[in-house]
Amino acid sequence: MEEPANRNEEEYSLKDFCSLLSISEATGRNWIKLGKVQPAGERLGKPYFSASYAKEAKERLQGEGSSFLKSRRNKKYISGTAPYRNYIPQDSPNLRQVEALVEALGDIMLTEGQIRAVLAECAIQLLCQAQRAKAEITEALYQAQGEKAEITDVLCQAQGGKAEIKENFLLHYSRGEISLGQYGVLLKELLDREGAAYTEEQCLAAQEGITGVFCIPFVLEPNVDILGLLYISLKNIGERKAAGSYYTPTHIVQRLIAHLFPEKKIGQVKILDPCCGTGNFLLQLPDWCPMEQIHGRDIDQVSIAAARINMALKFPDAPVSLIKEQVRLQNFLLEETGIYGLILGNPPWGYQFSKEEEKLLKRKFQTAKGRHPESYDVFLEHALGSVPCGGEIAFVLPESALHVKSHLAARRLILEGAQIEWLEYLGDVFDKVQCPAVILQARKSESPFQTKGMEVSGQGWGFKIQDNRKVEAEYFNFHMTDKEYRLVEKAGSQGQVVFLKGQAEFALGIVTGNNKRFLKKEKTGGDEAVLRGADIQKYRISFPQCYLSYEPEKFQQCAKEPYYRAKEKLLYRFIGRQLVFAYDNQQRLSLNSCNILIPHVPGMDMKYIMAVLNSRAAQFLYSRKFHSLKVLRAYLEQMPIPLAAPPQHQEIISLAEQIIEETDPQKRLSCYGEIDRLVAAAYGYTAQEYQEIQNLTPKDSLPMAL
Coil, strand or helix: which one is 344? Predict the structure, then answer.
């Protein structure tokens, strides 16, 4: 057993080391194997790292041009600032101003104090414009009544009242040349100077090296979160990722709000955004919704300070004391115990809880019992527990919450205590983030879950479910119309189907860890052809375009060799919305974009299974049952495979073999069409139903490269 060179130095376990680098433990073990990282030694058979080495490794990996980490989609440690362009309306003049500000900063990384100062500059400008507008309205009212009134121009004159301030409002504020009245308290909070003055010396220190950004003017726009846009554009991108901060574009927030408030009625409903950030969801609430009923919580001090200023801009007559009471720095998950009629927002995705927080959450919430609690699952659970029966929640969530196994506990809670009233599939709506999202609106209920009356929509489509459907927590699938649902159910209810689960072997293709190093365009020495997903067509395999030397000990991940060398196997594309399967009896290697299926269904030929999975009927079933860009093993195991009568079974096999061997494209297409008809009949579909399937999925139904 090895001992560390310095037992007084802090040590990192493999788990802690991987957490520091934001990589999985599996990746960490592979890196050790490949020599990319070097543990200090082992204790009880487990590697450990010195704190100094862990810090150096993190800095080294970040310093390698984030190219290394980017290649692994390790986005938590990408540094730099960037304007969050789709956050506010694209025609907003402030979008151009923020872009100009970020461009002026270049590669400068701002400190928190500098970020606060830039936000304060923007806030002072907006507050001054709001006060001036209010003063002008008041003056107009007095004049309309024939009265005289002395209205102070609070768009802040320089001392002596002669020169109007046009830039660096923060500097003038620090000199006492700008008075914000009761809102001065909110600005001091934003500057982290609550209860103390913000001096000119502090202002000049914060502006050192970035004075130019304090010359950019901002325009007050009703209910536009300019401060939020500025804040998220200035924050380090890596910090946003680690905090799970995916700021919702305003047009998505407005869709959610419009669906919740189709009419001007609200009653005495208390509304809460439990992770309000800078307050965009609260800003988009109808103007007739009073501040007294609006509540916001967040754990980010700067966000809360900005949210309070936003509320002051939205409700110019609301006292600051009320705004501060309603919008508070507070941990919703661990501190909030109130009851609200409506809870809405976009809870953090993938927030990194501390170990102590995880312990507390595991004791308090069912959804936190797993290895690492997912933040939006826990927010969903606490929200359902914080509304009365009949109360509503409306959240923006990752689409994966509807079907990924790790979120099973959250789906069970919905089935047990809520009715989904509206679900919208949004697709990829977050700037520079490939993660489809949904809007989920649900009402807490003591009645059994039902789908009748549920509204479902997507990008350019929508419908209302007219019947009650069977819904299981394992997979929430609501993007089928009633007609499509009946066709899907028919295929699985005929009794003449089998499933691959427990009757097939699956294997992943090779993950080299460095394709540039291992893959070659030309064969040399003992190299072998290796297949990619793009090489797999329906029934056929294209001529391979790359080669490698099979040295599994050097790869980041590799299946056991017998899977690659199997006498016969099916290969399928891993990425894509179509099922694309080909037959291989040449023991060829494949990369991770091309996975392996070896079925062992008694009495069912492998080529028959390939033909079924390549058919239009199977494609229809798959696309309606599973809404994913990855063809996962769990999905294939749930695909019904029809039991065709022996003559039809053999005919399908014969036709599949003809497609594999045939060189004439028209003859291949003819064989494909005949297989299609036979498979549809095996599923129990009538000719009319098969025609409906083709009409419902015209884009998905076309065979590839036949």
Answer: strand
For position 144, what pLDDT does the model report? 62
* Cβ contacts of 56 within 8 Å, gap of 6 or more: none
> What secondary structure letter does DSSP report for 108?
P
Pick the closest to residue 585 from 603, 567, 610 (CA basis). 567
Structure tokens at 673: 């069409």
**Which of 103, 59, 55 has its CA nearest to residue 81?**
103
How many of the other CB atoms lie within 10 Å of CB of 312?
Answer: 25
CB 435, CB 428: distance < 8 Å: yes
Nearest to 225 by CA among 135, 346, 337: 346
Q: How many CB atoms lie within 10 A of CB 258?
A: 11
Residue 344 sits at φ, ψ, to 5 deg, of -140, 165
DSSP 187-229: HHHHTT-TTS---HHHHHHHHTT-GGGGG------TT--HHHH
Could you tell me the maximum CA-CA distance found in the chain, to the nearest angstrom?
100
Distances in Å between the Cα of 337 and the Cα atoms of 158, 325, 385, 386, 389 are: 48, 15, 9, 7, 16
Q: What is the pTM of this model?
A: 0.79
Distance CA 606, CA 653 (A): 9
- Distance of alpha carbon 561 from alpha carbon 558, whole angstroms: 8
3-class SS at 462? strand
pLDDT digits (tens, 9 = 90+) for 462-516: 999 999 999 999 989 998 999 999 999 998 676 689 999 999 999 999 999 999 9
Q: Any idea what the Cα angle at residue 183 is, between residues 182 and 185, rounded to 5°?
A: 85
Are the C-beta atoms of 472 and 445 separated by less than 8 Å? no
Tell me the C-alpha distance between 102 and 329, whole Å. 28
DSSP string, 555-579: SSB---HHHHT-SSEEEEESBSSS-
Report yes or no: 616 and 694 within 8 Å, Cβ to Cβ.
yes
Amino acid 656 reads A
Q: Is residue 406 scored above 80 in pLDDT?
A: yes
Say which amino acid occupies 391.
Answer: G
d(CA 509, CA 324): 56
Contact 191, 80 (CB under 8 A): no
End-to-end CA separation in angstroms for the chain = 60
> In which residue are the tokens 């997507």 written?
458
User: What are the tens digits of pLDDT across the range 644-685?
Assistant: 999 999 999 999 999 999 999 999 999 999 999 999 999 999
